[in-house]
Amino acid sequence: MNMGNKICFFSQMYQAIPSLVSVQRELGGIFVCGRSSTVRYFKKEYPELGFARYNKRFKRFSAGHKAMLNAECIVTGSPYKSLLSPYSAKKLMVFHGTYAGLSAKAVQGLQHFDHLFLTGERMERMLLRHKKGREFSYTKTGFIPFSQFPEKNTLNSQRVLEVLGLDASLKTIVYCPSRRGVGSWELCAEDLLRELPAEYNLIMRPHPSQSMNLRWHEKSAMKALQVAAKKRGNTLVDMIDVALPDVLMVADLFISDANSPSEEVLFYNTPQLLTGLGNSSYANIEQSLIDRGMVPEDIGEVLQVFDCAPVYAEEAYGNWGQAVAEALSSEAVYAEKREACFQSIFGRRDRNAGHRVAEIISSEYL
Hints:
Elements (H helix, E strand, L loop, with lengths): L6 E4 L6 H11 L2 E4 L2 H10 L4 E4 L9 H8 L2 E4 L4 H4 L5 E4 L10 H5 L6 E4 L2 H10 L7 E3 L13 H10 L7 E6 L8 H11 L4 E5 L3 H4 L4 H17 L2 E3 L6 H7 L2 E4 L3 H5 L7 E3 L7 H10 L4 H7 L17 H10 L1 H15 L7 H12 L2
Parallel strand pairs: 1-2, 1-4, 2-3, 4-5, 5-6, 6-7, 8-9, 8-11, 9-10, 11-12
Helix pairs in contact: 1-17, 7-11, 8-10
């Protein structure tokens, strides 16, 4: 089912690539991007897929612009309303991450799409809550990146850990904070590395917007952290060199800032520990959602992940080692809440969303 140049996939963001690539692999077509860091990543990871560069300054001459002019269909993971408006192609949205912030304003900003592919139950509830008489063509196809999630078993975990140079006999702690300014990286990365006992593997994965675009003053701190990680042993500072599904699969405990990965890892019902530090505290996230115009029903749904794990900042932990040990020991306490949260956000647990999206695009838009 190769649609050649009839279809383009557009994104400037690394985070949308997993969803777009899953569909591009089925339908063919051309991935279009103009952000250098995202272009480098795409070309490195997917050299076999069609690509054309978009240049905003010299748009008329860029291969990406020409590809979208000739396409019948453009699939994207973010609104990009002004950028996509010159093109007559049908415009389809697959979203990126779990896209929890579907406020009334965000829904209004989706009106230029011909079809929305929703990630699951929560997104449909939010859309219906805020559409206010506007008509949207949509399908609740599910979360596309799940198609790349490997089975969680001893053999797969051992294979990944050995490739990463980690000890497959140890429990693996994974830390995935939110982006700079919002997440906890600056507040706890060094402490976590220093205080976690050597009886655990540790994978630390800064947010892609940070790891792919380190600011000059961050480079020395990151280098020092990598030196400390090497000294500790069985530690990896992952600058998105490892596929996120593999990172999530090997986690015995997942530490995060109540972000999209903390919802994605619910696929495996993995025990979690939320940092609750700085702007990732319950109160600060709640206030940010209020500031974005989200209604109480939306806010309650977004914050549901806080029911699924202990929160470091709210407990009287002596250090990160104690926090990790207690979070692992309380795994069963939160298991039902984690499953309920998964069902509330996603509904079905399968790996076929990308195929469903590809079938709908092929039959209805090409």
